[in-house]
Amino acid sequence: MDWKMLLACITGSVEDELLLRNEYLVTENRILRHQIQGRVQLTDAERQSLAEIGKKLGKQALEEIATIVKPETLLAWHRKLVARKFDGSAQRKPVGRPRVDKELEDLVVKMARENRSWGYDRMAGALADLGYEISDQTVGNILKRRGIPTAPDRKKTTTWKDFIRSHMAVLWATDFFSTEVWTLGGLVTFYILFFIKLDTREVHIAGVTAHPGEAWMRQVARNLTMDEWGILKPEQYLLHDRDTKFCAAFKQMLDGAGVKRLPLPPRSPNLNAIAERWVRSVKSEALSQLILFGERSLRHVLSEYVTHYHTERCHQGLGNVIPFPAWQAANDHEGPIGGSERLGGLLKYYERQAA
């Protein structure tokens, strides 16, 4: 076989493989397009790429393979690209003042969102102190373009994040969680109602019961709002979800005591994140590691864990400090280190002992 025959065989084999690949891609593209409902949104760059390739293929080939747009549409895109090349738009300069740098524009937006009472003049002054020359009118144009309302309108609204941050010192959160306990009657689900203060992470177990009915919830509310030793005081805020266990009698007693309830929107556990995180901690670090026999053992585990949580456990949300440490570390960081434990070694902590 001479070299011409060999070259023809190789070329024919390559062409057959390319045809098979193209046939597979066309079939796959049609299947995928059939599964996509509605119109496919394309960017300008994607339109340009399709138009350039489509022009080379021609209308007849496009009718066989194009599925997301019509061949006429691809060719129309190509004509627009050709026209744009010669209309001089690439050399034109925009009319008017130059656009504000993105970095400065982002800073204006950041200031407006973090300071809801600041007007255009005040933001322009604050930016001038930082070395930026910008007028109050330009500040207003940026905020309008970004869809941010004026200061009077911004002051009327606030986000959950901002509200929680500004009310941390007077804000409690509450929630239920459940665990299974072995009793003489078999495996019973017990419900634990707890409260947590958001600024200090102080946890209060309000009650443990297998039947959280209205009478039980009323008594819990009465205990929480007692003048002498109740944890909830007038003018404090309480975050709670819309669980039906928070019955009308419970809510009425809190309202009567001057506690401002903040019911969370439905299906929004992220808005009660600190309480949810405590549930995860107590379950993963204690309850899920033990088999509980009777309500008394459950109360003992909860008591030990709350003490550990308050006085011995570091909290990442508080900068890795212990909220209410039972001991003070030596200033010179000297002396032997001793380890202690709770719940049979399930909870461990370490302290530097006096030399």
UniProtKB/TrEMBL annotation:
Keywords: Plasmid. GO terms for biological process: DNA integration. GO terms for molecular function: nucleic acid binding. Residues 148-331 form the Integrase catalytic domain. SUPFAM superfamilies: Ribonuclease H-like. It comes from the Bacteria. InterPro entries: Integrase_cat-core, RNaseH-like_sf, RNaseH_sf. Transmembrane segments: none annotated. This is Integrase catalytic domain-containing protein.
